[in-house]
């Protein structure tokens, strides 16, 4: 019998395993506690923070998809960052992170730095000399590729080699790609983190995170530490996330088709000062993304020539896209990073990262491609000062 492929094994996690009623979909285990046969004789589960059968099915699926030894499922994406900081960074240690990372990550690391817990170095990972110089004394390097919101691509193989040579551990945030478009462990990462809220769940109805670990012994300790810190996800959130993951492959393929239609509508429009999407041959990271990813993703950013006034005109009366934070759902979303996802960054940090007031980040959903393209064309016309809604 032929061995099942990685995706099939992952999406079928738990299916057909119910022994009570032979249900196809595994039941959700909401119980907070479990019966001991006698003192010290546990069935393998005792308290749901430490272990839960539903959460374990999601963990198995994520570890399978990422090619890791194990996955630890936690309550949020930032809980995953918190867990890795506690695992890898001693008091007074150094974290090296991209200067254009997610605003919540910047805020968390900056908070720790201002309290003296650690030193946070935010640097340009696309400048090899600057990056290597930042590694002195580092314990943890956090790479986010593609980056949020400018879709810069980091060479994970090169960064892993330099990180390990410096005696540090590489963490890759794979939220934007999902494990179907990129597998950082195969490229040298020691840990992979996700905000499972995004593509893995895909329905904008549950918040979650995960850490996937390369080394089996380390993975066991990461799971133990998540329990100690109280970061593990609940059963219902895990159930919803696993339900969402089962359609990930189909969603990713449709996202890709729709994103090309949106890019075609935006490319060359006079209201656009810059279009950031690694699928464009003009994108600085295009060739690298083509090598280390199996697709270019469905996130793009549009930098409008007219700055914030143009962004406000773009958003006024915008159809199909909802102005909201988050990404990776079945619905199309748009956000203004400077006032939303990256508002927690200082103005100086945003300026260094290149996040201006005219920048908009789009997460392309599963609506009809022609409707998405029409909405963007109308909005760009408004941004330029054309159309009925311009004023």
From TrEMBL:
Post-translational modification N6-(pyridoxal phosphate)lysine, affected residues: 198
One GO-annotated biological process of the protein: transsulfuration
Organism this protein belongs to: Arachnia propionica
GO molecular function, one term: methionine gamma-lyase activity
SUPFAM superfamilies: PLP-dependent transferases (SSF53383)
Catalysed reaction, written as an equation: L-methionine + H2O = methanethiol + 2-oxobutanoate + NH4(+); L-homocysteine + H2O = 2-oxobutanoate + hydrogen sulfide + NH4(+) + H(+)
Protein family: Belongs to the trans-sulfuration enzymes family.
One GO cellular component term noted in the UniProt record for this chain: cytoplasm
Name by which UniProt lists this protein: homocysteine desulfhydrase
Keywords of this entry: Pyridoxal phosphate, Transferase
EC numbers: 4.4.1.2
Cofactors: pyridoxal 5'-phosphate
Domain of life of the native organism: Bacteria
UniProt gene name: metB
PANTHER family per the UniProt record, alphabetical: CYSTATHIONINE GAMMA-SYNTHASE (PTHR11808:SF75), TRANS-SULFURATION ENZYME FAMILY MEMBER (PTHR11808)
Lineage: Bacteria, Bacillati, Actinomycetota, Actinomycetes, Propionibacteriales
């Amino acid at each position: 019998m032929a061995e099942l492929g990685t995706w099939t094994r992952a999406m079928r996690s738990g299916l057909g395993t119910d022994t009570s009623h032979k249900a196809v979909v595994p039941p959700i285990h909401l119980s907070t506690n479990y019966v001991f046969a006698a003192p010290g004789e546990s069935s393998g589960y005792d308290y749901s923070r430490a272990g839960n059968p539903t959460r374990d099915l999601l963990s198995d699926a994520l570890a399978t998809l990422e090619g890791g030894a194990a996955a630890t499922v936690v309550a949020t994406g930032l809980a995953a960052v918190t867990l890795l900081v506690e695992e890898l960074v001693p008091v007074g240690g150094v974290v090296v992170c991209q200067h254009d990372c997610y605003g919540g990550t910047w805020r968390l690391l900056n908070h720790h730095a201002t309290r003296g817990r650690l030193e946070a170095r935010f640097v340009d990972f696309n400048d090899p000399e600057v990056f290597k110089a930042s590694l002195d004394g580092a314990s943890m390097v956090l790479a986010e590729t593609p980056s949020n919101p400018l879709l810069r691509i980091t060479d994970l193989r090169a960064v892993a080699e330099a990180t390990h040579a410096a005696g540090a551990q590489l963490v890759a945030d794979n939220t934007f790609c999902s494990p179907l478009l990129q597998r950082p462990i195969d490229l040298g990462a020691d840990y992979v983190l996700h905000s499972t809220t995004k593509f893995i769940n895909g329905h904008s109805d549950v918040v979650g995170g995960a850490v996937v670990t390369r080394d089996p012994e380390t993975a066991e300790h990461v799971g133990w530490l998540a329990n100690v810190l109280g970061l593990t996800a609940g059963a219902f959130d895990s159930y919803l996330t696993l339900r969402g993951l089962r359609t990930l492959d189909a969603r990713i393929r449709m996202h890709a088709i729709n994103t090309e239609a949106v890019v075609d509508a935006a490319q060359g429009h006079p209201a656009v000062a810059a279009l950031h999407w690694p699928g464009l041959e003009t994108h600085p990271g295009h060739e690298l993304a083509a090598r280390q990813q199996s697709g270019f993703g469905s996130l793009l950013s549009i930098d409008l020539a007219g700055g914030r006034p143009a962004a406000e005109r773009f958003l006024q009366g915008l159809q199909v896209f909802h102005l909201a934070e988050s990404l990776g759902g079945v619905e199309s979303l748009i956000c203004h990073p400077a006032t939303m996802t990256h508002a927690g960054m200082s103005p100086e940090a945003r300026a260094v990262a290149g996040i201006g007031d005219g920048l908009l980040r789009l997460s392309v959903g599963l609506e009809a491609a022609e409707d998405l393209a029409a909405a963007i064309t109308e909005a760009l016309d408004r941004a330029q000062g054309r159309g009925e809604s311009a004023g």
